[in-house]
Design brief:
By secondary structure, the chain is an all-alpha fold. It has 6 helices and no strands. The protein has one domain. Helix 1 runs antiparallel to helix 3.
C-alpha cells in the first residue's frame, strides 16, 4: 500500500533527521546528565526509524516480508509516540503533543488501511 509506505518512509527519515540535527546542534542535554538512559532511548528511536524505512521500501517493492516489518515498526512508533510526549508536556512544549497525536492517528490509519488491503 502506497500510503503506508510513504508514511513509514517520511516518519523514519524524519526521525533520523530530527535526532541527527538535535545531536549536531547539541540539543540533547541528557547526553551529559543521563548518558546511559538517553543512549538506550536513542537506540530505540534509531531502530524504530530504520525499520520504518526498511518496511516502507519493502512495501513499495512489494516484497513478502514488508507487511511484517512495517507492522513491527509501526508498533514501535506507536509506543514511542505514546511515551515521548510526557517529556515535552513536562516542559510546556504543547506543539509536540499535537505532532505526536497526529502520528498516532496516522499510524493507526496506515495499519487499518494495510489490513483491509488485499495486496502490498
Amino acid at each position: 500500500m502506497t500510503f503506508a509506505a510513504i508514511f513509514a518512509l517520511v516518519v523514519g527519515v524524519g526521525m533520523l533527521t530530527q535526532w541527527t540535527l538535535s545531536f549536531v546542534t547539541k540539543q540533547i542535554p541528557e547526553l551529559r546528565t543521563e548518558p546511559i538512559r538517553i543512549a538506550f532511548h536513542l537506540a530505540g528511536e534509531a531502530i524504530t526509524a530504520l525499520l520504518l524505512v526498511v518496511g516502507g521500501l519493502g512495501l513499495l517493492a512489494a516484497v513478502p516480508w514488508a507487511r511484517t516489518v512495517f507492522l513491527i515498526s509501526v508498533g514501535m512508533l506507536l509506543y514511542t509516540a505514546i511515551v515521548s510526549p510526557g517529556y515535552f508536556a513536562q516542559r510546556g512544549k504543547w506543539g509536540w503533543l499535537i505532532m505526536f497525536t497526529a502520528l498516532i492517528v496516522l499510524a493507526l490509519a496506515t495499519v487499518i488501511a494495510l489490513s483491509t488491503s488485499a495486496t502490498v
